[in-house]
Specification:
With 362 residues, the protein is an alpha/beta fold. It folds into 2 domains: 223 residues, 3-Layer(aba) Sandwich (D-Maltodextrin-Binding Protein, domain 2), CATH 3.40.190.10; 99 residues, 3-Layer(aba) Sandwich (D-Maltodextrin-Binding Protein, domain 2).
Length: 362
């Protein structure tokens, strides 16, 4: 009997361990290209998905739709389970009959910088001086365009006070550099990595910095819900345990990002975050570029509280509802949602899971 008791105790402990292990589940997650992969790839490197019993499959929405702005349809037809992209996708999805709800806020700033050409920095001190100027701020449906419009309106100018430059200028540094040198562009609204690359030309000076939550609040009056994790409401209702485990992973991972250097983060990221076919001769420079990208993005990531601020959701919805989008397919899609009358700010998020994770996870 003396021999059997330790054996029995060991068996019971093993059984208890098995019973405590979470049931294995599979989640198909579609991250926005680029920095959108940071949280899931780091979580894989830290083994957080496995610890929550999640088998993660990363997918690309472009494998299923010719245009990525239809991605919330994939959430509702079961092709994918969750997506990481801009909060505005939630608003546009609801307004077009393919609803989604944000459950975790990754960024509370749009990482936008509005800079003035150095030749004009003595003349352009605020957005009130943008009247009649030419601004490179991307396409007429873009975040850069409607946030630039918002800043202009807050300065007291009506919409249409400035001339938008050709959309391709803000995406191609050589073209933008040439336009600035030729005095064809006066102001530039851009995001990383273009912001850093443009600064290196020494042709512009930053005027409005929306690369952090606090800078965004100063520029437009509140933080801006940018990249977030969202799912279809039907999935949330059917699988609350899965959603909770997924949000647990994101909470732990964001806490790691908030408390570690870019170098420490890169050391934990798996190879999936990097281009798998990168030439060995270029690897060191490429890896440093990715490290610098993370370091620049870190200040604009949400820290401490990863819930969707109700005030920011209402603010963002108000901006989107009053935006005149262009006639491109995506512009029409966004306008349909904004003018549909179907969207209420409180429909766009569900903070239950992140509030529980922040409270219970130590």
């Amino acid at each position: 009997m003396k021999i059997r008791f330790p054996a029995l105790a060991l068996f019971c402990a093993f059984a208890a361990t098995l019973s405590a292990a979470p049931e294995k589940i599979k989640i198909r997650l579609a991250p926005m290209p680029g920095i959108g992969h940071l949280v899931p790839e780091l979580a894989l490197g830290l083994d957080y998905f496995a610890q929550e019993g999640i088998e993660l499959e990363l997918v690309n929405v472009m494998n299923y739709r010719d245009e990525d702005f239809f991605s919330t349809e994939l959430l509702n037809d079961g092709t994918i389970d969750a997506e990481i992209c801009w909060y505005q996708r939630v608003v546009f999805g609801i307004g077009n009959g393919a609803p989604a709800q944000a459950v975790f806020l990754i960024e509370n700033s749009p990482h936008l910088t509005i800079s003035v050409a150095n030749r004009l920095r003595d003349q352009i001190k605020t957005a009130a001086d943008f009247k009649g100027r030419t601004i490179a701020d991307s396409a007429g449906f873009s975040t850069r365009r409607y946030l630039t419009d918002l800043i202009v309106e807050r300065a007291g100018l009506p919409r249409g006070s400035y001339q938008p430059a050709a959309a391709e200028l803000s995406a191609k540094l050589p073209l933008l550099t040439k336009a600035l040198q030729a005095s064809e562009v006066d102001i530039v609204a851009c995001m990383e990595p273009m912001t850093t690359n443009l600064a290196a030309t020494h042709l512009v000076t930053p005027l409005y910095d929306l690369s952090t939550g606090e800078g965004t609040r100063r520029a437009i009056g509140d933080v801006w819900p940018a990249r977030c994790l969202y799912l279809a409401p039907s999935y949330i209702q059917a699988h609350p345990d899965r959603v909770q485990r997924l949000v647990n992973v994101f909470t732990r991972t964001m806490r790691y990002i908030n408390t570690h250097t870019a170098e420490e983060i890169v050391a934990k990221i798996g190879p999936g975050y990097f281009a798998p076919d990168m030439n060995n001769d270029l690897w060191a420079d490429y890896k440093k570029t990715k490290l610098d990208e993370i370091a620049k993005v870190q200040p604009g990531l949400t820290s401490g509280d990863y819930s969707i601020p109700p005030s920011a959701a209402k603010f963002a919805c108000d901006v989107l509802f009053h935006t005149d989008f262009d006639e491109s397919p995506e512009g029409k899609y966004r306008r349909t949602a904004a003018k549909s009358g179907k969207v209420q700010p409180e429909m766009t998020y569900d903070n239950r899971f992140v509030e529980r994770a922040m409270k219970e996870l130590k």
